[in-house]
Every structure is written in structure tokens, then in C-alpha cells.
Amino acid sequence: MPQSERSLIMKELLRWLDAKSKKGDGASVGEIITYVMSEITSLGASQRTAKGYIETLSKLGFISVYRLRWKTTEKGQNWLARKKEL
């Protein structure tokens, strides 16, 4: 997969998770995987790929787990805000 496509998928995932986080509930790993596989990848994605997106966003500090639910961090929200300007 081209890097630009991967970046777009991760950006869309972060936007979705940020919206869920602002509602207060965040998302479980299963919900994230289902979202990636059914909503933002044109030909589907493997569970391994979807988990890789979660791991990457976590390593970057854009998301974190709280009470078994993933939520965006302030760093992730700031990154999204900067990307909207471009």
C-alpha cells in the first residue's frame, strides 16, 4: 500500500476516534478493527493491518487506552487540528 494511502487511512481513523472520544466513550479494539476493515479501506484490510494502525497511533502518542477503551490524546487532537489547516 502506498504511504499516502496509509496516511489517509490513519488520518480518517483518528478523526473517527476523536469524534467517539469527544462523546466520552472512545472505542474498543474490536470497534476500531471493524471500522477500519469495513469503512475506510477500499478493498478491506486484515485484522493484523488494522491492529498495526492502532499500534502506530499509540506509539506516536496520538491515542491511548483508558478503561479498555481507546481515545485520542491531546497530542492527537492537536495533530488533527494542524492537518485541517493544510
Q: What does it look like?
A:
By secondary structure, the protein is mostly helical. It has a single domain, classed as Arc Repressor Mutant, subunit A, CATH 1.10.10.10. The protein is built from four helices and two strands. The protein has helices at 3-23, 29-40, 47-59, 74-85; strands at residues 63-66, 69-72. It has a two-stranded antiparallel sheet. Strand 1 and strand 2 (69-72) form a beta hairpin. Helix 1 packs across helix 2. The protein is globular and about 30 Å long. It starts with a helix and ends with a helix.
Record the strand order, biggest sheet.
1-2
State the share of residues found in helices, binned by percent.
55-70%
**Mind telling me which CATH architecture this is?**
Orthogonal Bundle
User: Quick one: CATH class?
Assistant: Mainly Alpha
Short précis:
The chain is mainly α and 86 residues long. It is built from four helices and two strands.
